[in-house]
Amino acid sequence: MSNETxxxxxxxxxxxxxxxxxxxxxxxxxxxxWVRVVCLHGIQSHSGWYDYSSRRLAAAGCDVxxxxxxxxxxxxxxxxxxxxxxxxxxxxxxxxGARQAEVKLPVVVCACSWGGKLGAALCRFRPGxxxxxxxxxxxxxxxxxxxxxQRLAIVAASxxxxxRRFTIPLTDPALFTAVPRWQxxxxxxxxxxxxxxxxxxxxxxxxxxxxxxVPRYVTVPTLLLLAGQDRIVHNDRTAQFVRxxxxxxxxxxxxxxxxxxxxxxxxxxxxxxxxxxxxxxxxASPVG
Length: 288
What we know:
Layout: H1 3-6, E1 10-15, E2 21-27, E3 35-40, H2 51-59, E4 62-67, H3 85-102, E5 107-112, H4 115-125, E6 132-136, H5 148-160, E7 165-167, H6 180-188, E8 195-197, H7 198-211, E9 222-227, H8 235-243, E10 250-255, H9 269-282
């Protein structure tokens, strides 16, 4: 049996500075760790969606942590809610700081979809916290978003009734993948987030605005992975935006036949190979 099929996630908790208890999955590396990969998921997904790629990275010697965003995934307290943008960024920064205090390694933030906004904003919020940035179909320029009327209702509710919940406009599993078994998985997933508070959604809008300011702060090696058949984000605008980053080491790789969630492709090994090759060229793996 291969290493990646025997590696399992250890579900643990981390206490944020405001007292919130955050769940995360840790995939311990096979052999000596040569890089720490801290992963951030999308608005609807959670760490459990990315189990296979996390195991593959761990099998290659990466120390992998997948943090469930507060109010999502395994975090049931204040479901679909968040106090604000700064708090979400602090969650990630504090988590990375705690890991680095235990064992210091090069840190690569790997952020998918909506989480890409957090990953990029982190470079401005806490410069130097990461040594590399991987953006997988990041949600900088979404194709799917609330209508103008819905956005106005969300803003109004965030002021008058911030706990009011709205449906996240990603109701069709086919937006994420063309593979029927994964569409069924998404449709039946009890941990997926389908509704969020006005406070959280307004935070998301503010994060969109904040991300426009990050290019000059992203100075670390950056890998952008895009899906050619993506129906959730605008690829051309995303690629143009990432090219504006201050980093002298930016790689853009498009998988022409893939859909938004690369984990749910018929052969996820394609994107995993690209990711591992990029990591190894910058933080030399002792196992090659």
